[in-house]
Each structure stands twice: as structure tokens, then as C-alpha cells.
Design brief:
By secondary structure, this protein is α+β, with helices and mostly antiparallel strands. It contains four helices and six strands.
Amino acid sequence: MPAYVRYGSLFIMLANLLVISGCAAPGQTREDQRQHIQQTEREVLNALYDLKPDLRTDVARAPGYAVFSNVNVNLLLASASTGYGVAVSKSGERTYMKMGEVGLGLGLGIKDFRALFVFDSPEVMNRFVERGWSFGGHADAAAKAQDKGVAVGGEVVVDGMRVYQLTESGIALQATLKGTKYWKDSELNFD
């Protein structure tokens, strides 16, 4: 069997496993899951405000923002990740969301990271919440274990939004082209 067939099959299995197992936030009930997402949101914002104090003003002035928690696995020629988060409008309306990502490229590792999206206009936020599709190239190097190590990431400006990434833990060296899909979590947005 050719190598590309073996790696392709491995990638499909990996992506399916991540999407099936990891999209939901931890918690026994919907309220537990919402509380976990809100706690993650507070932690990410506070950590970014500590690193970049002027970001607090940018977020307060923005028409909205979104915070996501994501786990990425990269095996040789393929990567996949899954996660969850919340988009928050200036009025305080919350839309709970999920995300999934697949990519092709060279890499190896597992990385747990958090992302903040700051929207430049209500239209950009609405498009993100309603359609939520993002595609792009990505390259990074991260090595961090709990409070030790380093994390390389910063601000990326894309299509009317600024994206900030914090690496929570993991080791990854990768250069991939990824397709990411964000969508509303139908279970957490309705009672």
C-alpha cells in the first residue's frame, strides 16, 4: 500500500476521532458546559490582558469578540483539531459555538491552545456567528508545559477580525494549510 494511502487513512481516522470526541465542553449538563466555557473565557481574557494591557480597551470598544478552546493533533502530513467557545456581542448576547479543523502539512505534536477573536464590525461578527467558516495557512512553533516553556503566537489580522492565540500546554512544530469551521452549538444555545 502506498504511503500516501496509509497517511490519508490515518488522517481520516484522526479527524473523525477528534470531531466525535472533542467538540463538546466538559460538563454533565448544558449549564455545566456553559459555565466551563464562561470560566475559560474569563481565564483567556485575563491572561491576554496581563500580556497586552491595551487589549482590554480594544475588546471593550469592539462590537464583539469570541473565545475558543482548542486541542490540535498533528501527525506527520496531517493535522486535526476540535474545540468549543462563545461569541459575545457588545450587548452581552452569547452564542455558544463549536469548531473543527483539518489540515495538510508537515508536523508532529499535540497542542492545547486558546484563541480570542476581536471583531472590527457587527457585520463581521454576524458573519462569523452565522456562517463561521475560516480557511488559511498557519505556521508555528510552541513548547510549553503548564507554566514552563514558551509559546509563540501573536496577533493575526484576518477578514475584519483580529485573532490572538495563547498556548496552554503541549509541544508542536508544524506548518500546515488548514480549513477551520466554526458553527453554533445547537445544544447549548437552546434550553
